[in-house]
Write a structure and sequence with these properties.
single chain; alpha+beta; seven-stranded antiparallel β-sheet; about 35% helix; about 20% strand; binds flavin-adenine dinucleotide
């Protein structure tokens, strides 16, 4: 059921043709140098971080202001030209593919940090600001921006909001939706709306901020974001525990949570990941272990140390073969790097890595990892799993060589079964990476036809001409 790789087509009769006259109008709106139509430029915007998916837009437009975005969208709606908003293109769900041609609207020029307001614990940014740049700006005021996707040095805040990105601190701090206070959004018809704002409490009307967060660029183009910031914790502490099996590690995870600790970090790597990461980063990991559990907490010195000690004890009491606490920031960073470099480490094992995002209720973690292993074995694919143990969010990653007969099909068949297994365990097809084009075939299995139909009605209310990121999120 996994969506097959796609190529652009402009033959869909729902859409108009982007001709020279429209290109001329776009050039007039943003300046000729910000409308890209050369083959090489279009090629660069034909892909995102999702392997095997590719679709060429007709042009790429780089606006600098909300007014320009509004004018572009009005023009596109009038001529029924698809528009695909794009941040850094780091998504893993084929969410920025121009499957029907049209305009890729790259927001990378809108990258001003407009304000950091320590007295209000918030910041106001344009959508093209990177997640890391926002965090650094907050750090300068003794604050931090909590959502921390592994891609934070490249991913944009606009892309994070549109995908409702998660990250390594999700269990304790939540995900992007928990930090979006207000949005300025341009609707496909060109109207500019403001949802929410600077208030921490505001229940006037439907919560459109939440609806737009995670809308994958299908309802509106986000042109300004007001986010909540947090005071920077005085310290953070990290430890690592090795287990013979992932089942043992999962038991320890359950015991840690049951003990009343809500860790800032609770991440796992399976045996294959441990080996790949150790080959890649030479961290001296225990390669004989069946699972590695990274645990950590932050806060005041005493609180963080106490909670780290409790987690270490719980791991030891739950069959950990070894537990080590980082002595200083350098050691802690090295441990966290072991988790952060999992994807590049696995990427060295073959030409293509397909990373997925199935999520299950926490008590089902071990069962799900075992199920993934047996599914992969049955299909003869090389699969390693790492992820956020604290919130049941698994990243099974298949490494393959697409030139080998049947390799791509085997990977798709594996993931189809993985999603089915996640759903049967009460989980979901995506915990944080989104649906995009890659997983739309699975959306009705997760939501049901009635809810999917409601999603489509909401889409029509925002986007009557159906031009904004068509085909994504079931639209
Ligand atoms: C190495 C690596 C690690 C990653 N780690 C994580 C992780 O830990 N957690 C996680 O959740 N994700 C992770 N991701 C996935 C990805 O980085 C996130 O989905 C991120 O939020 C995408 O941001 P972006 O700026 O690249 O958006 P893009 O990929 O450009 O776009 C993503 C979606 O947002 C829409 N969009 C972008 N900007 C706007 C806008 N201004 N208005 C409206 N719609 C918009 C697009 O149309 C598209 O649907 C990782 C990816 C990589 C490659």
């Amino acid at each position: 059921m996994t969506a097959a790789p796609v190529a652009a087509t402009t033959s869909d009769t729902r859409f108009g043709t982007l001709d020279d006259r429209i290109v001329g109008e776009l050039q007039w709106l943003v300046g000729p140098e910000y409308v890209l139509t050369a083959e090489g430029d279009l090629e660069a915007y034909s892909r995102d971080a999702t392997p095997l998916f590719r679709a060429r837009p007709d042009c790429v437009v780089l606006p600098e202001t909300t007014e320009q975005v509004a004018a572009i969208l009005s023009l596109a709606t009038a001529h029924r030209i698809p528009v695909i908003p794009r941040g850094a293109g780091s998504n893993l769900a084929a969410a920025t593919l121009a499957e029907h041609g049209g305009i890729v609207l790259a927001l990378s020029r809108m990258r001003r940090i407009r304000e950091v307001a320590p007295d209000e614990l918030l910041a106001v940014v344009e959508p093209g600001v990177t997640t890391a740049a926002l965090d650094s700006a907050a750090n300068a005021h003794g604050l931090f921006y909590a959502p921390d996707p592994g891609s934070k040095t490249v991913s944009t805040v606009g892309g994070n909001v549109a995908m409702c990105a998660g990250g390594l601190r999700g269990l304790k701090y939540g995900v992007t939706r928990n930090y979006v206070l207000g949005l300025e959004v341009v609707l496909p018809t060109g109207e500019v709306i403001r949802t929410g704002g600077r208030l921490w409490k505001d229940v006037a009307g439907y919560d459109l901020t939440r609806l737009l967060t995670g809308s994958e660029g299908t309802l509106g183009v986000i042109t300004e974001i007001t986010v909540a910031l947090m005071p920077m914790p005085a310290t953070s502490r990290t430890g690592v525990a090795y287990f013979d099996t992932l089942a043992d590690a999962s038991t320890a995870v359950a015991a840690i949570i049951a003990d009343g600790v809500v860790p800032a970090t609770l991440e796992f790597l399976d045996q294959r990941c441990i080996a790949a990461v150790d080959d890649f980063a030479q961290l001296g990991l225990d390669r004989k272990a069946g699972a590695l559990l990274l645990f950590g907490d932050d806060g005041g010195e005493q609180t963080a140390a106490a909670s780290l000690g409790r987690m270490a004890e719980t791991c030891a009491a739950n069959r950990a073969r070894e537990v080590t606490l980082a002595r200083d920031v350098a050691e802690a960073d090295a441990l966290l790097y072991a988790r952060r470099c999992s994807l590049p480490a696995l990427a060295r094992l073959g030409p293509i890595t397909m990373l997925e995002d199935a999520t299950v209720p926490r008590p089902r973690l071990a069962q799900m990892v075992d199920t993934i292993s047996s599914i992969a074995e049955r299909h003869g694919v090389l699969c390693a799993t790492f992820g956020h143990a604290g919130d049941g969010n698994l990243h099974p990653t298949v490494v393959l060589d697409p030139s080998v007969d049947g390799a791509v099909e085997a990977a798709h068949a594996t993931f189809d079964e993985v999603f089915a297994a996640a759903l049967s365990l009460g989980g979901t097809i995506t915990g944080e990476h989104g649906v995009g084009a890659a997983k739309r075939a699975w959306l009705s299995a997760r939501l049901g036809e009635d809810q999917l139909a409601l999603l489509r009605r909401i889409k029509t209310a925002f986007d009557p001409a159906g031009i904004l990121n068509p085909g994504k999120l079931g639209s």
